[in-house]
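Complex 418.
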Amino acid sequence: MSRIRIPSSPPSLLLLLFVFVSCLTLITARQTRDESSYQKRDFHTLSNEDITKLVNLDPPQWNGVDEGHLGKLLIPRASGSQNNTLVQNYISSVFTNLGWHEEKTPFRGTTPIGDIDFQNLIYTFDPSAPRKIIIAAHFDSKWFPDFPANQFIGATDSAAPVSMILDLAEFLTPLLNQRKGRVDSGRGILKRDFDEEEVAETTIQFVLFDGEEAFRDWTATDSIYGARHLAELWQNTFLPSSHPLNKRRLSPSPSVLNTIDHLVLLDLLGNKHSMIYSYFRETDWLHAKMKSADERLQHEGLVEVEKGEKEWFGDMRMRGGIGDDHLPFLHRGVSIFHVISNPFPKVWHTLADDASALSLPALRRWNRILRVFSCEYLGLGPLSATTSKSPTKKTTDELRINGMHMLPLARTYKTIVE
Ligand SMILES: *[C@@H]1O[C@H](CO)[C@@H](O)[C@H](O)[C@H]1NC(C)=O
Ligand SMILES: [Zn+2]
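Predicted structure with zinc ion bound:
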């Protein structure tokens, strides 16, 4: 705004008003342009009626915070421990029963307390899809050397986010299977601005990180062991020549990292209070969509809002960020939405971060927010009667080429931001 000069002669009120309005217009125009250039994909907003149907489809079965999946995760589970393996086996059994593709990335890492065996767990609904959204959380809990601190549970950090992922996977699986059935038999829904076959090219992947916690004090080398390993592994895993991204002849050759449209990282959630800010301008719009999901759920009376907890999503657009599993991906150009409570829960890294720190209404609210957000991102809805055989069936190649327009080019956003 520095180029707008305030006239030196006594300005008339009208002139001042004019300058003020011009500034406003400039700001508004700028924001509109920014938002449209960052939003690289369609988002399929559901009607309030559909949201109600989704929420009622399969209500959470549990009536206490230690029931259901969460109950299986609320144990000390530091990386490399037997309990950590138990938790891994449990997560694996849930996804295997649901029929998801499983990938494990075992590796040995050097830590201040010696070498530790880590393993990330990765679950994909459709491993052949060319693009994906990732929703991630870490399943390890912080290691402490002595009793009683070594009984640290980390309920919000991040047993609850992992249980949200398991609940979400169970909820999404039938919807994803139904769509796959329609698309495979050529009966995908085709409406104005909506081609189910094309929409299905974006799959969902859940990444459960091991070794997020530092063994001593958080440093670049003592923290996020699993995430650092995976980001590097994917950077060096190049796509097969048959992958649609390879047709763009990118240089350097596209890697698995290029297939990630967005990485949504959940951390420090499940207690009564949450305050989620947006840290990255290119995903401000995803933050706005999640906020909108919460608002619509509240409007329809589908979530219980505890006293003083109406606003979980702050409008302030943060600069900088919070160190977490997203960093090695961010630094390699992946688009990040960091869903982390700021400030951290009061119980953070204390023995009090156990089942008693969690709130059942808050867990249910998160559960529903994530349902609506994921369905809208993926273009999924409750089974609708409006199906049609696509009259103008496109060839696979055309579809893929269309889909590719929406693929983010790693690192290009950096230029847009600056
Ligand atoms: C493993 O979990 C159990 C609870 O199931 C707990 O009592 C035990 O102390 C944990 N082991 C370690 C080494 O933390
Ligand atoms: Zn932690």
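Residues 181 and 187 are 8 Å apart (CA to CA).
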